[in-house]
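call fold(seq) -> tokens
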Amino acid sequence: MTTPHSADAAPGTPTVAVLGTGIMGSGMALSLLRARLPVRVWNRTRAKAEPLAAHGATVAGTAEEAVRGADVVLTVLNDGRSVTETLTAATPGLRPGQIWLQCSTVGIDATADLAHRASGLGLVYLDAPVSGTKQPAEQGALTVFVAGPSGARATALPVLEAIGQRTLWVGDEPGAATRLKLVANTWVINMVNSVAECLNLAEGLGLDPRLFLDAMKGGPLDTPYLQGKSAAVLSGDLGPSFALSTALKDTRLILDAAEASGVRLDLVAASAERFTRAEAAGHGDQDMIATYYAGRAE
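ret:
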């Protein structure tokens, strides 16, 4: 299917600057283009942004160039430090009143800092982390958690509708959406490690893991996630829909938030240990189900 070019955009649609075109950012940019929104893209490694030009995006040489004149600035970067550095680089091209849709998962402290920086620049800050991985990003099927001024909703709506199948407005103050994202990621992180450990134990007991999957199939404890992640391990196809190193980063953000709020998360702490071992063994760039390798005897 051919993706519409930005030149075909309907009058009055917001111009979007996408800063960060990794796994998620590139998929979200494609969804924006499919919705006929004018899109500019920038990535620190330009080669990762250039393929989007064939779909109608304008590839900018600098973050400043990308944001200049844009109505909505969308950041999809790895961590708080990357977002801060990119915002600093983009600052000469920013103007008061621009909407900043901050979709990176950066944690509670970094979100507060970024909201403060946005206020100083006159930007309208929307704390907007997303739930989903590569395929939903490419299909415009993410769930977007948003917290920020209600007055920004009308301008942001075409962007949110393009990248997500559902937008959940969490509150008017930035930070609420990030807190919800950390809770949602806790579920995902514990689940992926549960899948990995079941496969590890089945093999350790001399069973074909497919017997376990067949036992669960069609029952109340079966999920597409269990079957899909298990299939990735058993086929050896660990191309990342969500990289293990990113999952480890998010796990640490969850543990930091839990400690600050007086909550003990034993399962997440164990997940952090598994991710750390798998990353040290060279699996950081693979899909997070590569945590499977942390449970195998050396």
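The first strand starts at residue 16 and ends at 19.
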